DNA sequence: CGGGGTCTTGATAGCTCTCAAGGGTCGTGG
DNA sequence: CCACGACCCTTGAGAGCTATCAAGACCCCG
């Protein structure tokens, strides 16, 4: 697990953010955009495997993913790891820590990652002067809650193959929404990540993914997974899709 | 599953709320309390088994639990049910629906329940005129997120007996925090609820709870569970406890 | 007194884990 | 160039955990 590369100065001005024009993100007013722009202090990059935030850290920062993939996880004392959710462009990182004060999960980069860094201590100013943005932060927290609800349903009540199909359909959907994947989407994952997300052993995960491969739904490429038939994956999982709607981008 | 009893007029004024003096809840300023009081339109009661909100409902209300127990859950098409979390006094109900627009989970009463009913369409006024309360709503959403993170870790990576011990220690902790349980805490649950929370079958849940009973950690009373040794339950689960701190009450 | 809900227990089937071993790729150093 | 280690993916076999099936006890209530 390598270290995070130090922050370099800002590069992409919020007004020219490559994410904002995407149809998934709602339009911001000029004052909102101006505040967000001033809220951002710089950018940070990280390589795959780098720890972005660590469980127990007290002075967590607040970030938004600008590009790349990451994941949130917790571990038990004996090392068992559970991946909680994935982070894609447009997702807030470290909100729990910023709001409540201490991180209770860790975050690690899955691909080369670029993060926008925000001034955490100006969060109250955001709520005071831009109620709409305050509402948006709550909106994003509710969205995360929904995804976790879905994951809980999956871990608790879906079979192994349903879980795998759900996870891959879910990640496919999210990747598409933020404009990743021209043609077939490739997800930068190892089977160990999948296992730690689904609550399965690595061996059984492998055998389960093989079934999906044999059905022609996915293809494994070594450190990444190509989605060939997202619709059929969702059907196998019994998953309706996310009803993802336009969301804020902070 | 019986129906919800219709709302009757308000009874408990927020200024005399029996929950607010508890040490778990932060003190509110006079204007905050005044707003919350005006935000509340009445109360609603429900009997055990009553549906408070249903998945897919579009016009969900926003509530806070005043007294009693409830739970949130989702189901798959074939009826498999997963309990996502429990609701105790002081918890918001229906925030996801209020923020995003549509409920993606259902809520059911576990005991006789009293809810404070709020005017959902004044939520934006809350954010506009009381930034501190807006922050509090986000705080509560983050708290829920944390609990879900813990549950995911449990479902994904704990064994059956660890999961059961975790769940009961968790509910014990929450009950204590809101002043339930003089002496030993009794949790109004059936083993079916436990099974649907832990992602286990009812039979195996029974056998697992028996082990905890034989170790003298709990006692099953028919439709409820008495916690005899919460510390040992937490130890069995490998759970540190919640680091629960003072929280807002809306 | 019957019926429904809850809790309990044993037996068997089936799913998942662990153990073990091997192949492949990639980057590094001899 | 080749050896080597590290990491990732794959597969088989047997053990262990969990689901399902089945049956019965208990309680409350109409």
TrEMBL record, chains A, B:
One cellular-component annotation, GO: cytosol
Pfam families registered for this protein in UniProt: cNMP_binding, HTH_Crp_2
Keyword Transcription: yes
Domain Cyclic nucleotide-binding: 24-94
GO molecular function: DNA binding; DNA-binding transcription factor activity; kinase activity
Superkingdom of source: Bacteria
UniProtKB keywords: DNA-binding, Kinase, Transcription, Transcription regulation, Transferase
Segments crossing the lipid bilayer: none
Keyword Metal-binding: no
All copies of domain HTH crp-type, residue ranges: 158-231
PANTHER family: CRP FAMILY TRANSCRIPTIONAL REGULATORY PROTEIN (PTHR24567), DNA-BINDING TRANSCRIPTIONAL DUAL REGULATOR CRP (PTHR24567:SF68)
Protein name: cAMP-binding domain of CRP or a regulatory subunit of cAMP-dependent protein kinases
Native source species: Devosia lucknowensis
